[in-house]
Specification:
TnpV protein, single chain, 2 strands, TnpV, rod-shaped, mainly alpha, 119 residues, 66% helix
């Protein structure tokens, strides 16, 4: 079965109406969206190649999942190393919040450097 190609007039030229196939609907989280913005801005050729090969969505979903796992693993490891636990939370809640925020910020920076802003 032959595919019918349609054209659109642009000035003196007839250009084919090209359309990418439907990509699977996958929920991409914050890490995947940040990596997408990074690719669009700093690696447009890689972004275009992934998009036109219909691999972009799966790639971003994979990055998002890996980054999320890495973030939670780092937060747990750093909290354990620094003694930020439920006892501290019960004894001094404000200190616990401050230290956990510090740990989360450091873990976030590590994920950015290792996964999001790297290709």
């Amino acid at each position: 079965m032959a595919t019918k190609i349609t054209y659109t007039q642009q000035g003196d030229y007839l250009l084919p109406d090209l359309k990418l196939p439907e990509q699977p609907k996958v929920e991409i989280g914050i890490w995947g969206k940040r990596h997408l913005r990074y690719l669009e801005k700093h690696h447009p050729i890689i972004y275009t190649n992934l998009l036109t090969s219909c691999k972009l969505t799966a790639y971003l979903a994979d990055i998002d999942e890996q980054a999320e796992d890495m973030f939670f693993r780092l937060v747990n490891q750093l909290a354990k190393q620094e003694g930020v636990n439920e006892k501290l939370k019960a004894d001094n809640q404000m200190l616990w919040v401050a230290r956990m925020n510090n740990i989360r910020n450091r873990a976030e920076e590590i994920v950015y450097q290792e996964m999001i802003y790297k290709f």
